[in-house]
Amino acid sequence: MATEAPPPTQTHQLRYYIALSAPPTREAVTGRDPYLRAEVGFTPKWFHEYLGVDFSEKWHEDPEYRLQSWEKMSAEVHERFPGRNIGDCEEEGPPDILTGLYGGCVVSQMFGLGVRYWPGSWPASEHGYMLPDEEASRLEPVDLENNRFFQGILDQCDRIEKLTGTVKGYLNWQGVLNTAFRMRGERIFMDLIEAPDRACRVFEAVTETMIDGIKRLLARQRESGQDYRFATISNCVVNMLSPKHYEKYLLPYDLRIRSEFEDFGIHNCAWNVNPYMNAYAQAPRLGYLDMGLESDFVRCREMFPETRRNLIYEDTDVADKSREEIRKDLERTAVELGPCDIGLPNIEYGIPDDKLLWVLDTIDEISDRYENG
After folding, report:
1. 109 is in which domain, residue-wise?
2. Does residue 41 sit within a domain?
3. Is 105 part of a structural domain of the chain?
4. How many CB atoms lie within 10 A of CB 283?
5. Residue 194 lies inside a defined structural domain of this protein
6. Dihedral angle at the C-alpha atoms of 178, 346, 125, 168, nearest 10 degrees?
7. In Å, what is the CA distance from 285 to each residue of 263, 281, 303, 316?
8. What pLDDT is recorded for position 6?
9. Residue 151 to residue 160: CA distance in whole angstroms
């Protein structure tokens, strides 16, 4: 059964958001958006190759360095794509130098999992690590009050506020299954068959840690004047579970997170969302849901009419498809899924600017036709 949602805010919808060089996340909808809204994100490699920005450990540990790199990145994007407001580079006000911090490895590091850094990529969890069976079976939520890594994030918030006047932005909290997969590897899927109690112990610890961490960060941000009231989860590896297993074992934890926050969104990733729509529909007032091209857009719009929908259009589609093929995809999206976002994440170094500009112009053209026709 669906859990009860907290009282609604003015709008419960969330939209796709990609800060400069950061992995995608979500933000609150605060005004009227176009019928089709494009959101573009460039990889760290793009900025590393063009500008020499180093995304190694210093970028994640030093807010001053992040601010300097943000200024360089913002100027470059503005020059190449004037008026496009990619990564909020056209907006006045304080910059977002929180989003992207530690990539998708925030929660796993709270549990002590090591991370590797690269000059031109997001950080990644150490390969080959697997939480032993015995430790997984007695795993507890993290004591964040005494967790050195999380307290370091709060210390960075203090430094960010001194630099920018506020603490704008988001951490990428990933999701219960994503973090469990980082901690247990493929073994987490075997646990669901051979030792479901052990799997649920891991899910429970991750869920409680996420809820506690999100609430603590939001409270700190409210002190700086940023009143965020939502949580989102990332289900990037959900397609490794059957819909039956997801609904039985993971959905209860996702719904628990949903019940703790006013607004809530689900990142399904660029996969086919069809097998999981019935489960996702159990989340009250779902504010956001994304999917890939293989999804049944018509059914999704029918099932989630009040949810902000987003097609994740992959960088390989932008790079490899002809303009005719891309236009066909965009026209189909407008007809079957719109109004919606069209996410263009992970734009890599080497994708021509004029190709990306053409995609953005085409999205605007189609969107204007639906709004004015």
Report:
1. 14-372
2. yes
3. yes
4. 24
5. yes
6. -80
7. 8, 9, 12, 33
8. 41
9. 14
